[in-house]
């Protein structure tokens, strides 16, 4: 088994040196985290997993050098995606960092809705799809990472319908009210893109719930315990809080560089309490609030002046984005103001560095700092908070952490604050600096135990294991694609064939208004071709007979209306399948009308022997609640009445219990000695038909025909096979028609 990791950047960064292109290890939480997992795979003989990392190599590679770069990176288990400077500018600096990043981090006023950025985002995701298809092999697993590639899962699903695909978002997913600020077409396509995965992971349950709510409100997809059933696969949405390589930060590094850095810090900070602030340059990190909170702390706690130092490390990031340049100037000015106001000849309140720190230097700062001040305004996880706690080998030190960081859900023993409250930051600093060592150790022991137990290797392993389980469990029935030849052969060899076909969702797509689902010429021609000598075609639908007669009555096929109440055989007139009553309709109509008034967009479809309450056009969230209430009331009200209540696809139907597709279908099947029967449907009403056709004793005294039952969609079904949508159904039926 091979694991294909797909991310915007490779773990290797290309640089030009003396006219040659060389590759260095790149930094970042994703790279360091997944590298630890991949290293664990190499050292664990119990797991037989190879991997390839697919991504951009960090530099524009000329066409003539691309074959050489591919060869070099292949030896390093990497496969490059080549992008032009213009593509990266509009894709990365444009759509990713001027649209998705600010919006998903709750800075909507920073968002630039440029359609050229969107078009480039689409194009780059397609380039990544092609790069994956170039290296994919049977049996591979695909794990796509982060907001740069949110369209990729669906693009891959179209080409690789049976491949396990996982996606993990490393930043927050915003609430629906923010997500809906994206242009509707963009927002819908991104959600569709993500739903191409089998498993979608987030850092917290909160982010997962925000995603599920957006899919419900925008796409109308409901979920059951975090599982969404799309038409061609199941999607599970869950939280997987990313861990760190605990031992990497908790153990003593090899070599002299760490010891040298630690000694320098001891000398620099001698006699002072040290507060550590480490972050990338980003407006989401709350660096300005942090400095203002520190300033307030010095104002309200003068006894700590000349006793405490803020070590502030800001790592350069996205220097080409205007908001970052502006923020850099603001930080510089604020640091200068605080140092100028409070500093003395013997004391500088803030020691400020604007640079990237190697691990040895960073680890020395973790070990030497009494307090870590981590106050993002919004953050997916924030691994720095976890790294600081893990690095405290003597279990002292105090973590002050923003409640807006995903890590706050796991590190509850830290001092949790609201980063927008400067008084809270100041108060937390005072509490942290005065906290007794016994209390520090008590808190850190609990957090270290938690971080050690759920480290990055466990996080990665859990995600992959869950992905494989979802892939294994998702198909309640078998994909027809893998067994279609048996269907074609049985059809060709049969003398008398019966096709029992549902209409809406099976032969035509669902529409907001049922009257808009009129058959197109392609479908009419297909039904004509199927209804030849030796094959009886039956449309068995919940539609009323008037609509069926208007749309299909001129064809040489059998029509069944209202799930079996009405029947029209080829060349005959409509007739009731059995005596039925409909006096119950006038008693239930007021109840349905009341819910129609309560839910804008819903409407009632009245048929002769049934009622249908449709809510496809209604607000998805409200309709789900109303549908549950209506179902409960109908069940309670009709407990002593011989009618059946059934919830289908965005519809609740009430009909006579004596009539089902199952009994009607069996009755038709027993009229002649058919040696081939095919039943296709997409809804709960079709399950009766699938179930009764599966019973061998339904054919007493005669040889049972070869039967094929197909569910449209991936819902749990009693059908033998499934097809993803009506397009695939038509394609299969056309293949049958062409065999005539």
TrEMBL record:
PANTHER family: BCDNA.GH08860, TREHALOSE-6-PHOSPHATE SYNTHASE. In the C-terminal section; belongs to the trehalose phosphatase family. Belongs to the glycosyltransferase 20 family. It comes from the Bacteria. This is Bifunctional alpha,alpha-trehalose-phosphate synthase (UDP-forming)/trehalose-phosphatase. Signal peptide: none annotated. InterPro entries: Glyco_trans_20 (IPR001830), HAD-like_sf (IPR036412), HAD-SF_hydro_IIB (IPR006379), HAD_sf (IPR023214), Trehalose_PPase (IPR003337).
